[in-house]
Amino acid sequence: MTTSAEDDDEIVARIPVVLGPVREGASSCLLQYPLRPRWRPYDFAQLSGARIRPKQHQIEMDLRIPAYDGEEGEPPPTCQLTSTVAAHKTAYAMGLLHVGAGATGTAGCADALDGLEASLHLAPLDAVAQMRPTFSQPLEGAADGADAAANPAGGGGREEGGGAEGGGGGGGSEESVMPVFKRAETEKEEEARRSSHAYWLAQREAEPWRELRMHGGGDAATVEVRRQMFGLPS
User: Residue ranges of region Disordered (predicted)?
Assistant: First the structure.
């Protein structure tokens, strides 16, 4: 099947594509917020803290909720967002169209780029994380309330029983400890242990948190990182 020249789309502009440099010790992560529509995003002006575990690609954010109760006199509550690594369905990359000085952006693509140096810079995307609210804080509060209801006296009766049983003696008798022998794990057992959820939690909790400082899109630090990421001229 052949097509005539009249059926071909007109080429309005040719833009060279430039791959960004590989930066040692740096990675890029796309944050998604699947529970919030585009017309109702989170208010990051209320951000009170952020943390990251770089190796785990785990991020936590604390957002203040504007629900202050003057009668209670308590500080406003916070909503904690935690990340979940999403699987890559395809090879993602971030793109930045760099246009030379003088472009107004009011005309069409061909007119705006006419006579100007333009280039499309691509940088690889290392991870995709979806941010969702965590229920750790409400669950902790509910657990504390249940403990207080189950033990309203603050455990005083338990302490009295321990004193009566001790008989006033301060020193305890020494107990002999028998050695415990445990056989070595087989390859199948070791593989099952490493693939368990408990092992994954232990590996995640072993990495300490690092505090983050958020920068706006127009800050000098953000502009410099963007320049290094896409290999833009200084």
Answer: 138-176
Dihedral of CA 89/93/94/98: which sign? negative
- Whether 161 has a pLDDT exceeding 50, the answer reads no
CA dihedral 201, 204, 209, 214 (to 10 degrees): -100
CA dist., res. 13 & res. 40, Å (int): 36
Angle of CA points 62, 68, 73, to nearest 5°: 110
Parallel, antiparallel or unpaired: strands 47-53 and 210-211:
antiparallel
- CA distances from residue 87 to 77, 126, 127, 132, 150 in whole angstroms, order as listed: 32, 11, 8, 16, 43
- In the block, tokens 């939690």 appear at 201
Residue 74, both tokens: 């308590």
CA–CA separation, 83 vs 80, rounded Å?
A: 10
Please write the tens of the pLDDT for every residue from 57-66.
889 999 988 7
Question: Strand, helix or coil at 214?
Answer: coil
Per residue in 139-156, pLDDT (tens digit) is 555 555 555 555 655 554
Whole-prediction pTM: 0.61
Q: Which residues pair with 59 in a beta bridge?
A: 52
